[in-house]
Design a protein that fits this description.
The chain is built from 21 helices and 23 strands. The chain is an alpha/beta fold. The strands form 5 sheets. It has an 8-stranded antiparallel sheet. It has a 5-stranded parallel sheet with strand order 6-3-7-8-9. It has a 4-stranded mixed sheet with strand order 2-1-5-4. The N and C termini lie far apart (about 60 Å). About 45% of the residues are buried. The structure holds adenosine monophosphate. Belongs to the IAA-amido conjugating enzyme family. InterPro entries: GH3, GH3_C, GH3_M.
């Protein structure tokens, strides 16, 4: 639809969306029917005895809820070149590599034209709502988009991150034009093989088109903060390039150099202007609107683990609105942000009922059962998952794990994300992203979730903000080599902070873990004092480089918040870079 259009008909997109969300239950039924009709001949479904039935009841009775481990052998056969219909009726055209940064291991997932269509649908839906409140005119976008290395599987399928498949697709570029959000960087920059060369050129292109830039964006907020932190280091070099009209020798890629040569010409006036603006800033506050006077908003996923970058982003953005992008994964899209003026901390995502079939595992029952087991002292009892409920059966205020059935061969697949239902838009739920379900610091029976960790870190980091320093990034792990075991938090800080303040940060972190079991275990010392390890500047960049080396892309990068014991390389990087450590004294 989008590729033929000059400008997106936003009113039509909104109308279609309202109609569909008014009838979510039927749309879900129809969507499941379509998925099962298209893929009924696939071996995976054939084996389960659906025998052509496409109704939700038969689907749930025959098809088990699975995790990645269960479907991995099927995906491996696809990757190895088995062309028979294994997971889908039509062949899978590519494999997406998930970032793998949340759990230390990246996964390969099927990608096909249907997922591409879903992508365009969700992008145009949120754009339609966004453009009503924050209209952009014929301008350009400074998009910090990067591709991953694209490899071929043994069977010859292209394999790269989902965002790389999307950026490579011509429909995506047409859609960006239709949404008046065309990137100001040439494609050679997006597809450059060296992240730092691409980043430098994105910044340079942004400056060259500074008057036209209407929006600054990336897939996840981390990349925008990373870009402007880099800008702080390289701005003089960027100005020199603009002044002379010659690209810095740090960019060695011949195709990027020739693409950039077409844009660069000596412009001492612009160089002077940018130099003057940068020199006049106080600690880079308001950097974004100063550089890009016509920017209307900043756009990227800003919820979940990205919330930790909001403080820095707001520092750069000042009064430019921050708008969180949509909710999805390499496995497929889930919901759109249709309330763009809501601050990211309170943002929710409305599920699009026709882009997949969605179910939800209630988590409240789980927690109650867990507590009951403790009361009965039956710690060894196996946790039985409660039955998943359908999209329109979820209850406001409750938390769930998302299960997705998509058009690319995943059936009742546990995504591992925890969401809270905050309300309904017509008859489809609005979800707040809570955290990854199994990302936890846990020693005995305590459970410190990713969200608990984020809140504790936010609280403790206030103490370093008072010293005019900021937290560059953080992570954690459980140290079982001490007796008793204890939690370790890694912090990288933008500058020097006194031992007294850091000791207090450490105490504050320990005090802020409110999990009942953690608090009790700390009292009786079955969990040792929390340890804060301050790492040297640049440590988290080394972590990023490590993941890039494994095939991740900056566009989908998420700092691992809890590093598991098997992720030895990441632990080693931290271990090699500890500058100071503190033990809690609470
Ligand atoms: P990946 O497949 O590597 O891109 O990672 C997908 C994961 O990123 C999801 O399962 C979520 O945990 C996280 N994610 C994606 N979109 C959002 C969002 N809007 N808010 C919070 N987390 C998100």
């Amino acid at each position: 639809m989008l590729e033929k259009m000059e400008i997106l008909d936003v009113e039509k997109v909104v109308r279609d969306f309202e109609e569909m969300t008014n009838d979510a239950e039927n749309v879900q039924r129809e969507t499941l029917k379509l998925i099962l009709e298209e893929n009924g001949c696939a071996e995976y479904l054939q084996k389960l005895g659906l025998s052509g039935r496409t109704d939700p009841e038969s689907f749930k009775a025959c098809v088990p809820v699975v995790t990645f481990k269960d479907v991995e052998p099927y995906i491996r056969r696809v990757a190895d070149g088995d062309l028979s219909p294994i997971l889908t009726g039509k062949p899978i055209t590519a494999l997406s590599r998930s970032s793998g940064t949340t759990q230390g291991k990246s996964k390969f997932l099927p990608f096909n034209d249907e997922l591409m269509k879903n992508t365009l649908q969700i992008f145009s839906t949120s754009f339609a709502f966004r453009n009503r409140e924050l209209p952009i005119e014929n301008g350009k976008a400074l998009q910090f988009n990067y591709s991953s290395k694209q490899t071929k599987t043994k069977g010859g399928l292209p394999a790269g991150t989902a965002t790389t498949h999307i950026f490579r697709n011509s429909q995506f570029r047409n859609a960006m034009k239709a949404m008046q959000s065309q990137s100001c960087s040439p494609v050679e920059v997006i597809f450059g093989t060296d992240l730092y060369q691409s980043l430098y050129c994105h910044l340079l292109c942004g400056l060259l088109f500074r008057e036209e830039v209407q929006l600054v964006s990336s897939s996840f907020a981390f990349s925008i903060v990373f870009a402007f932190r880099t800008f702080e280091q390289v701005w003089k070099e960027l100005c020199a390039d603009i002044r002379e009209g010659i690209l810095s020798s740090r960019v060695t890629s011949p195709c990027i150099r020739s693409a950039m040569a077409k844009l660069l010409k000596p412009d001492p006036e612009l160089a002077d202007l940018i130099e003057k603006k940068c020199s006049g800033l106080n600690n880079w506050h308001r950097l974004i609107p100063e550089l890009f006077p016509n920017v209307k908003y900043i756009y990227a996923i800003m919820t979940g683990s990205m919330e930790s970058y909001l403080k820095k982003l707001r520092h750069y953005a000042a009064d430019v609105p921050l708008v969180t992008a949509d909710y999805g994964a390499s496995e497929g899209w889930i919901g759109a942000n249709i309330n763009p003026t809501v601050p990211p901390e309170s943002a929710t995502y409305v599920v699009l009922p026709n882009i997949g079939y969605f179910e939800f595992i209630p988590l409240k029952d789980n927690i109650e059962k867990h507590l009951q087991d403790k009361v009965n002292d039956s710690f060894l009892s196996v946790e039985v998952e409660p039955k998943p409920v359908g999209l329109t059966e979820v209850k406001v205020g409750e938390e769930y794990e998302v299960i997705i059935t998509n058009f690319a061969g995943l059936y009742r697949y546990r995504l591992g994300d925890v969401v809270r239902v905050t309300g309904f838009h017509n008859s489809t739920p609005e979800l707040k992203f809570v955290c990854r379900r199994n990302l936890m610091l846990t020693i005995n029976f305590d459970k410190i979730t990713e969200k608990d960790l984020q809140l504790a870190v936010e609280e403790a980091a206030k103490l370093i903000s008072e010293e005019n320093m900021d937290l560059v990034d953080f992570s954690s792990h459980v140290d079982v080599s001490s007796d008793p075991a204890h939690c370790v938090i890694y912090w990288e800080i933008s500058g020097e902070v006194s031992d007294e303040v850091l000791q207090e940060c450490c105490n504050c972190l320990d005090r802020s873990f409110l999990d009942h079991d953690y608090v009790n275990a700390r009292k009786i010392n079955t969990i040792g004092p929390l340890e804060l390890r301050v790492v040297r500047k640049g440590t988290f960049q080394k972590i990023l480089d490590h993941y890039l080396g494994l095939g991740a892309a900056l566009s989908q990068f998420k700092t691992p918040r809890c590093v598991g014991p098997t992720n030895t390389q990441v632990l080693q990087i931290f271990c090699d870079n500890v500058a100071k450590n503190y033990y809690s004294m609470v």
